């Protein structure tokens, strides 16, 4: 089995590998076409959302912030349009992350690393930075010439302009980031008048630095060396996923336009690939797609656009490079039928799991109460025997009022099936009107309150009270429409 | 599998035919490791971390010496940082602390916000100072009262609890609560046989079963003569004297016949220390509220 190993005698330095590899500068060339157009649209939409969303307003009444999307660390609330999330509801964020991962897996099952090519922030910002680079320093040839030629005043000016524009974009990226954590118009004014909190400037600084470095200088290095997704993706993918594929069944053998035309005239085998290297020149990660699917390929389809343009010029059919599967290419070389199977057990399974997780999240979100109660049973002592022979258990309750006005809740205790607990008496510290035998608790607007509650069971006549019982604490507000309950246990022995 | 030697580290590096990259010469079950060079920026970051580490050693406490350590030129110390953070905490709490200092314990309990604050302050103070005897949740132990039930030796109102915490019981403090259960047997005040009779009688007060041969009539007489002055006729106890109610079925030392005989023979006189002077007034106030709201507060 060790036959793949070949002892190389032609490379004398093979026992002294290089300590490091310098970044090979990539000069992606301008390209037009379907996929480039899709990428521009995605870029405008995603960056538009990112930069402008903090300014969208959403009326929540006079006592709440009117920013549509706001992560408010001060009052510990997360606002997303009509949804308000409290810290104890963090599971919604967990659910969103699970959904995000599943959607990524689904994307991968349909079209490989399509996330990388179109939606990944690294790709989107790199695209924007490349556009700036093209605007200031020219296209691929000009940039190569400028890098290899003497340093002229023109080059210096153009490079200065490029870095200035990059820094402005990077600064704006950091600036938009902090707007999600405070009232956006107020913070913009504070930033403009240099009265914003120091933390805002620190975060803008951090994100300016990362954006400028990652999108301006690191680019494909992030995909090749830093990002875990290419590695995970390689383990998740299957042969049915549509990948950017060089159709070597059509392309090979390569040759010049004239030579292949002559071969074709003679009825001999001739490929459509004319070795023009347009696919390599436009690639943002500098790979040669003709070597097949590889770690550097982010599935952006720009090589498809480049190749199509060439094919049109030389009068050959387009899509020599296309979203296809290697399996189909092999099938064509063998004369077998090809297929594209987007609906298969894997994609269906992902869709099903996404539907289940998304549905469960939506259900809990839509049916969640504006009140809440959590119970913690005393651990030491678990119960106490009182002088009249009755047994008492103590609980620490946290009662939650998510409404914007104070509410009084009536607290009751019962068996899980709703029947009363025989001989049980409920009391609480802080009960507003204990005299009437009911336990009423007033919770301020948008607040929680810790309440110490006691359940006492009178064992009279002796032996009739339950030793241990499952119990439910229930709160109902005055209107009787809103409430919550929590299960716990009563220990009598 | 042609290779039986699975880790042939001694092999010379070779070039992998598929990738054209040389290997490290290591092999595990036929899997070889490619010796891809690191990207240059990675190496720079690595060197930068080394430079950072050296800078860190110079700036901050780092190297252990025989009896001390290199202090670093910035003069930073974790102890000072703790002191600073405690100061910050004090400042952060100061508004609520002032409110707590200015309120009576009864006012604290009627204000939900202040009550939460006092309980939060009282809980760790209880854990630090009271839990070793009374248990983490005030559940008590043999000889140490349960603070959650409704049986109070000296009273369970806010004022009673504060008085007990402040000055203790038999603590030697001038204002401490004092009341002794004499050693009736050891000091020869009651003969042995009568002590057994009175112990049986005491058990019968809370409905505990007694032996058929028990002489409850004698026991009742002995009780009336010797015990009722503190424990009251019928054994209902007296809080002025710290004499427990013997009818409730709640026992500080236990309901066993031997335990009661032992108590009457040798007497009792457990001590609760005085906390005034050891704890500041605000902490005592918070502790009072905490204990009062454990469940037994009156």
UniProtKB/TrEMBL annotation, chain A:
What is this protein identified as? Cytochrome c oxidase accessory protein FixG
Query: Would I find Protease among this entry's keywords?
Result: no
Keyword check for Transmembrane, yes or no.
yes
Which Pfam family would be a valid example here? Fer4_5
Origin organism is: Pseudochelatococcus lubricantis
Residue ranges of domain 4Fe-4S ferredoxin-type in the record: 263-293
The superkingdom listed in its UniProt entry is Bacteria
Keywords, in A-Z order: 4Fe-4S, Electron transport, Iron, Iron-sulfur, Membrane, Metal-binding, Transmembrane, Transmembrane helix, Transport
NCBIfam families named among the record's database cross-references: ccoG_rdxA_fixG (TIGR02745)
List where the protein spans the membrane: 38-56, 90-111, 164-182, 188-209, 348-366
Q: Which InterPro entries match?
A: 4Fe4S_Fe-S-bd (IPR017896), 4Fe4S_Fe_S_CS (IPR017900), Cyt_c_oxidase_cbb3_FixG (IPR014116), Electron_Trans/Redox (IPR051684), FixG_C (IPR032879), Ig-like_fold (IPR013783)
UniProtKB/TrEMBL annotation, chain B:
Keyword line: Cell inner membrane, Cell membrane, Electron transport, Heme, Hydrogen ion transport, Ion transport, Iron, Membrane, Metal-binding, Oxidoreductase, Repeat, Respiratory chain, Transmembrane, Transmembrane helix, Transport
State where composition is biased (Basic and acidic residues): 1-11
Q: Where in the cell is it found?
A: Cell inner membrane
- Major localization listed first in the record, in broad terms: membrane
> What superkingdom heads the lineage?
Bacteria
Which note does the record give on the cofactor?
Binds 2 heme C groups per subunit.
Concerning its family, UniProt says: Belongs to the CcoP / FixP family.
> Would you tell me the protein name for this molecule?
Cbb3-type cytochrome c oxidase subunit
Q: What is the lineage of its organism?
A: Bacteria, Pseudomonadati, Pseudomonadota, Alphaproteobacteria, Hyphomicrobiales
């Amino acid at each position: 089995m060790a036959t793949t190993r070949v002892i190389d005698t032609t490379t004398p330095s093979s026992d002294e590998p290089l300590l490091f590899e310098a970044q090979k500068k990539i000069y992606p060339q301008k390209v037009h076409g379907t996929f480039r157009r899709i990428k521009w649209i995605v870029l405008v939409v995603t960056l538009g959302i990112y930069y402008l969303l903090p300014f969208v307003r959403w009326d929540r009444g006079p006592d709440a912030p009117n920013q549509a999307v706001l992560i408010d660390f001060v009052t510990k609330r997360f606002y997303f349009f009509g949804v308000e999330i409290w810290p104890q509801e963090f599971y919604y964020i967990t659910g969103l992350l699970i959904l995000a991962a599943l959607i990524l897996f689904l994307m991968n099952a349909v079209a490989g690393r399509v996330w990388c090519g179109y939606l990944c922030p690294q790709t989107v910002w790199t695209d924007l930075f490349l556009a700036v680079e093209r605007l200031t320093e020219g296209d691929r040839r000009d940039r190569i010439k400028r890098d290899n030629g003497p340093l002229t005043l023109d080059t210096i000016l153009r490079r200065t302009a490029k870095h200035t524009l990059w820094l402005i974009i990077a600064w704006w990226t950091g600036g938009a980031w902090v707007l999600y954590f405070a009232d956006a118009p107020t913070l913009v004014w504070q930033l403009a008048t240099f009265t914003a909190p120091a933390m805002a400037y620190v975060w803008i600084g951090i994100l300016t630095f990362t954006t400028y470095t990652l999108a301006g200088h690191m680019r494909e290095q992030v995909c090749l060396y830093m990002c875990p997704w290419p590695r995970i993706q390689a383990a998740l993918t299957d042969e049915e996923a549509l990948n950017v594929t060089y159709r070597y069944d059509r392309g090979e053998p390569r040759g010049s336009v004239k030579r292949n035309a002559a071969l074709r005239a003679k009825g001999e085998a001739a490929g459509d690939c004319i070795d023009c290297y347009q696919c390599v020149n436009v690639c943002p990660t500098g790979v040669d797609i003709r070597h097949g699917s590889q770690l550097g390929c982010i599935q952006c389809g720009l090589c498809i656009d480049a190749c199509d343009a060439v094919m049109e010029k030389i009068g050959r059919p387009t899509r020599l490079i296309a979203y296809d599967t290697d399996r189909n290419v092999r099938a064509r070389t063998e004369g077998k039928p090809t297929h594209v199977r987007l609906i298969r057990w894997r994609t269906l399974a992902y869709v099903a799991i996404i539907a289940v997780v998304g549905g469960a999240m939506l259900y809990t979100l839509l049916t969640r109460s504006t009140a809440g109660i959590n119970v913690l049973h005393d651990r030491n002592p678990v119960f106490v025997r009182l002088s009249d022979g009755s047994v008492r258990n103590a609980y620490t309750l946290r009662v939650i009022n998510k409404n914007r006005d104070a509410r009084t809740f009536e607290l009751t205790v019962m068996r899980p099936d709703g029947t009363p607990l025989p001989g049980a008496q409920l009391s609480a510290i802080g009960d507003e009107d204990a005299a009437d035998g009911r336990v009423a608790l007033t919770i301020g607007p948008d607040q929680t309150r810790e309440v110490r509650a006691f359940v006492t069971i009178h064992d009279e006549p002796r032996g009739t009270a339950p030793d241990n019982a499952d119990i439910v604490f229930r709160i109902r507000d005055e209107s009787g429409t809103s409430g919550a309950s929590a299960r716990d246990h009563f220990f009598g022995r | 599998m042609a290779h039986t030697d699975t880790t042939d580290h001694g092999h010379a590096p070779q070039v992998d035919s598929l990738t054209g990259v040389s290997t490290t010469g290591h092999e595990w079950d036929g899997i070889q490791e490619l010796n891809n060079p690191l990207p240059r920026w990675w190496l720079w970051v690595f060197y930068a971390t080394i430079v950072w580490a050296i800078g860190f050693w110079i700036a901050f406490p780092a190297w252990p010496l025989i009896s001390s350590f290199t202090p670093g030129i910035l003069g930073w110390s974790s102890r000072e940082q703790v002191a600073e953070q405690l100061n910050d905490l004090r400042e952060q709490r100061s508004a609520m602390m002032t409110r707590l200092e200015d309120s009576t314990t009864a006012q604290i309990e009627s204000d939900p916000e202040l009550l939460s604050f006092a309980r939060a302050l009282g809980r760790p103070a209880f854990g630090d100072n009271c839990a070793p005897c009374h248990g983490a949740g005030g559940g008590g132990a043999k000889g140490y009262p349960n603070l959650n039930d409704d049986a109070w030796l000296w009273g369970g109102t806010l004022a009673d609890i504060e008085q007990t915490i402040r000055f203790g019981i038999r603590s030697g403090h001038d204002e401490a609560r004092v009341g002794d259960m004499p050693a009736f047997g050891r000091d020869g005040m009651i003969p042995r046989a009568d002590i057994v009779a009175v112990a049986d009688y005491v058990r019968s007060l809370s409905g505990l079963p007694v032996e058929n041969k028990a002489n409850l009539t004698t026991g009742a007489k002995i009780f009336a003569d010797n015990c009722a002055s503190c424990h009251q006729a019928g054994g209902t106890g007296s809080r002025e004297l710290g004499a427990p109610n013997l009818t409730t079925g709640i026992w500080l030392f236990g309901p066993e016949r031997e335990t009661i005989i032992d108590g009457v023979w040798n007497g009792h006189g457990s001590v609760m220390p005085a906390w005034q002077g050891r704890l500041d007034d605000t902490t005592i106030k918070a502790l009072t509220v905490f204990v009062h709201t454990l469940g037994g507060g009156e």
